[in-house]
Amino acid sequence: MRLIELQSEFNAWADRLLTQAMSSSVVAYNFNLYEHATQFAIQLVGTRSFDMKDQDWACDEIFSSGEDLFSLPHAVVGDRWEKGLEAAKSLVESYLHHGSKAEVLKASSGVGVGFVDGDIEFAHLRGSQ
Amino acid sequence: MPHTPIKLIAFVLMTLLLGQVQQPLPADFPTLQKVSIEELKQKTAAHVEIWGLDKIERWDLSQGSGKLVFTLRDGLIAASPAQIVGTYNSEDHTWLWAWANSSIDTKLQTDALKLRKYGEEHHIDRLTTAKWVGTEDDAWAMTALAVKLCGEQGAYRGPSGSTYVFVAFGEVVFQKK
Q1: CB distance from B104 to chain A under 8 Å?
Q2: Does the beta-carbon distance from B163 to A119 stay under 8 Å?
Q3: How far is CA A54 from CA A25, A84, B39, in A?
Q4: 20 to 30 A from B17, CA-CA: which of A38, B44, B92, B113?
Q5: Is B158 in Cβ contact with A127 (below 8 Å)?
Q6: Contact B59 A120 (CB under 8 A)
Q7: Residue A106: closest C-alpha in chain B
């Protein structure tokens, strides 16, 4: 299996979660990454705040996919954390372009991707005048 | 692909108003800053006049595509390649260069890195110090410098809470929603 083949599964996972997460009180979304023995795992959280200067915003959760994680097997993406992050960013960025619920993410102030014990990278930022 | 009238008109006007004869850069930094700020003011006035940069309903910046997309109230969409120059924190009045911000993808740091290199070569502390205290005008001055030195077409300050994202953008392409 290749990453591109995981995309449709990721899209279905994100579609399902974003339907549940749709709430006017969600200000931003973060795709949390976890490193496990044979895979990386992605968790989606919705937060009540967003702050570009303080990454703790990602802990201010009002929605979480909890144990409903998306799996990125090491056999597909490699076992180095950089590869896991790169794969997750690729899936999220593709979803932002083509996902059927992408507008839910894009309507928020920010969408981040990152390991729970590392830095968050912004995949999308949005603002109004 | 044929140009739609809106694209063609905008393209002609932008070319006329933003096209500038390349002149050598001023040798001293204060003059370079002054010239950069003046040029950015002219470019911003042109964007406001031609397509309404001051009338945007929302802005979206995608790190994946590196595109800044403005949506205007009349449904016009203006998109352009973008670079994050830095962020300004209005609470503690600090400027943080994009190259020092781990949340910003490296491909959106290219202009900021070019300014750091210029700063290293010309011994300008503000261009090589990751974070410093200053005013919002100082943040605009850094952004104007990026527009000048990197050949960008304009700049925008995107509010994001108490932080402002300063973005330099390139050629703008228009599309009707």
Answers
A1: yes
A2: no
A3: 20, 23, 33
A4: B113
A5: yes
A6: no
A7: B60
pLDDT tens by residue, A49-64: 998 878 888 999 999 9
Q: What is the pLDDT of residues A60-86, one digit of tens each?
A: 999 999 999 999 999 999 999 999 999
Tell me how many degrees the CA angle A2-A34-A124 measures, rounded to the nearest 5: 75
Question: At a CB cut-off of 8 Å and minimum separation 6, what does B92 contact?
Answer: B133
Q: Flag if B158 and A120 touch (Cβ within 8 Å).
A: no
Q: Tokens 């949005």 belong to which residue?
A: A126
Domain spans, chain B: 5-176
pTM of the complete model:
0.86
Task: State the DSSP string of chain A.
Answer: --HHHHHHHHHHHHHHHHHHH--TT--EEEEEEEE-SSEEEEEEEEES---TT-GGGGG-EEEE-TT-PEEEEHHHH-SSHHHHHHHHHHHHHHHHHH-TTHHHHHTSSEEEEEETTSPPEEEEEEEE-
Query: Could you give phi then psi for residue A18, rounded to 5 degrees?
Result: -70, -25
Query: Exposed (0-12), middle (13-18) or buried (19+): which is A86, by Cβ within 10 Å?
Result: middle
Interior angle at CA B3, CA A127 and CA B9, nearest 5: 70
R_g over Cα of chain A = 14
ipTM of the complex model: 0.84
CA distance B23 to chain A (A): 34
